[in-house]
Amino acid sequence: MISISEVRIKLVASNAERLLAFCSITIDDGFCVRDLKVIEGSNGVFVAMPSRRITDRCHSCGHKNDLLSRYCSDCGHALRLGRASRDAHGKLKLYSDVAHPCCQKARDVITTAVLNELSAERERSKAPGYVNTYDDPYEAPLSYGQVVGNNHAHGLPDVEGRHDA
Asked: What pTM did the predictor assign?
């Protein structure tokens, strides 16, 4: 079974919304999943897996459009209504999970770890001088010079498109 080696929580400030926090988890010290959401649902708090909005293509120009769009956002062609499928409960399927647990036991491990860390992060946030640890200091974007310098090491073209000689 999986073990959650790290959970990072970013609390959401608004109390009016159902979204309580964003989080990322590290599984077995080797695999990170980002953009999980902690949401206050009608049956309590739950962890939503990262997802992407489902799109389809315009029959006229091939541009990707949201499933609820009535017209193509590129060419203006009228799109067929009812393009979204429905789940077992009849609810429109507008999002698709990017990553998700394959069994209930794995979901329970993730949920327990995330909700425990959410509680701990809420307590830490009450302390004076609180600093959120969600953003990883070594994930800062590289400067352009650093990217170019790394290209030479990998035999990729430099800024002018030349390969290492």
From this structure: 0.69
128, 64 Cβ separation under 8 angstroms? no
Q: How confident is the model at residue 16 (pLDDT cuts 50, 70, 90)?
A: low
Q: In what order do the strands lie in the sheet with 31-41?
A: 4-11, 19-27, 31-41, 44-48
69 in Cβ contact with 53 (< 8 Å) = no
CA distance 8 to 116: 11
Tell me which of 152 and 16 has the higher pLDDT. 16
- pLDDT surpassing 50 at residue 34: yes
Asked if 103 and 111 count as a contact pair (C-beta separation under 8 A), the reply is no
* Total residue count of the chain as it appears in this document: 165
